[in-house]
Every structure is written in C-alpha cells, then in structure tokens.
Amino acid sequence: MPFKIVRDDITKISVDAIVNTVSGDLSEIGGVSAAIFKAAGFEKLKKACEKLFPIETSEAVITSAFNLNSKYVIHTQGPIYTKTHNGDNENLLYKSYINSMKRACENNCKSIAFPLISSGHYGFPKDEAIKVASSAIKDFIRDHDIDVYLVVYDNESFKISEKLMGDVKSYIDENYIDENILEFSNRERIYCESLDYDCQTFEFNPNLEKSFSETLLNLIDEKNMTDVEVYKRANIDRKLFSKIKNKKNYKPSKNTAIALAISLRLSLDETKNFLEIASYALSHSILFDVIIEYFLTNENYDIFEINDVLFSYNQPIL
Fold this sequence. Notes:
The protein has twelve helices and eight strands.
C-alpha cells in the first residue's frame, strides 16, 4: 500500500527513512522532533546535523538514523503558520513533503514515514496540514514507487469536512445493521477474521466463466486505462498488481478487490458483480462495507478521501 495512515510512535516504526521537523539550524524544536533526537542518540544526531546546517524553509537534508529502527532521518524545516500568508504557508509545507520524499528516493529508500509537519510548535491547523500532506504525497507517489506512512496519534488529526461526515453518518444510520443481527441465506457464509479485516462474506459461484484476473484486464481495456493508472489510483503496489494480473487463479483480499473497483470507477452494482467473481459481497452488517457503499453510491472515487473517512471510523483503510 503506497500511502497509509497509521497510529504509531514514529521513533519505533520500521521504515527506510523517517522525517524530522527541525529549525533552520537543524536543532530539535520539541515534541516529536525531541523524541526523534532522543531515540536516535542526541549527541550523534546533533553532530551529524551540524555538518549540514543551515537550511531554508521547506528544504530537506538527510543523515544516518543511528539508534532508530530506520536507516535515515530526513530533516526538513516546515513553515511557521501565519493567517496573513496562508497561501505561502501551504506552498512551503507542500514543498517540505516533496523535498523530503525526493531525498528518500535519491538514497534508494523504499519507504518513508512522516509526522504531521508544522502542526505542533509551528501552529499549522491540523485539518489544513492534513490536506497539504495528502496532496503532496498523492502527487509524488503518482510518479514514484515508494511506500509513504503518515503517522498520527489520534483520529482528531483528521478533521473531515462537516458536510461529508454528516452525509456519511446519515447513510450509515439508514443502512447499517448491527453486526449481531446477521441473516444467513443458503448461498452465504459469513465468518470473522482477526487480522486485516473483521468480516468477509463469501458466495459460492461454480459457474463463473471468467477469473478475477481476466475480468480485471477486460475492465481496464473497457475503461481505456493503463495498468499504472489502475494500481496507483487503487493505492496498491506494483508487485501485488502484477501478481493479480499474471496469475489467472489468484484471489486478492476483499479490500484489494474493493480498491480496484474504486480505481476503475465502477458503479455500486458493477462493484458487487466484480466482487462476486472473487467470492466476496458487500454487507450492511459490516460498517466498513456501508462506508464503501456510500462512496460508490455517490460516485466519489477518491481513495484517499475514502481512507480519511475509514480512518476516522477506526476502520481498516484501502
């Protein structure tokens, strides 16, 4: 999954590079920055930084990560928030993310983890900081193969628009059936898993003429899309897409199948048919499915916005 939102301690996450927000002289600014210096080994990281300062706002430089789980620490000076220069603030913050990811790719990093840059001591409102971060990351991974993690502590960081959250809540209220009230038919078997997904619904379809892979390739041709467009829009990595495409009998997870349906901009009915080929179905007894159904019904295929809402409801993201 190229872009993932996680709740974690950035000093403990295992990635090739983590990003540290610093001042212009590359010194720590408290909060997450202080924690990174401490976990890496304060004196070691400080000496490494002293060889590289000063840096300008939005510039990014790279050092060893020393005692951290990552290989590198990428240091960037995020902008200090001021209401009178909001457009400039957003542009500089956008560049902080882009420049940090450039440093990672230049050093052959396959994964990078960000805190929410400038949202602490530098005063950037979290809802605005999230929008800029998501925009920069989406733009960058469109042309680069790197896994990006946005590390946050709580759901409060994600302030989705009141209208969208209100519409989603209304849809859930109207359509969600408590998971303790499940109706079983002769053709359905519902079971719960303890890993990535709470529940999955399977239907037995012995007479399907085409495999999931064949159906996917046909839909890509019908939509006049490229493979790269599809797996990028689905927020899945190239290797997984290649496996699905080239192994005729390969069965993806339900979440992956849904992500591909969103990437292909399938309607709700088309998505149900598409999932059926892989022996999955959408259920009103699963909150995750109801949220997905809301977006399909409203033809909103922005997988990153979908993930923001899923995250705010403590659901697995695509």
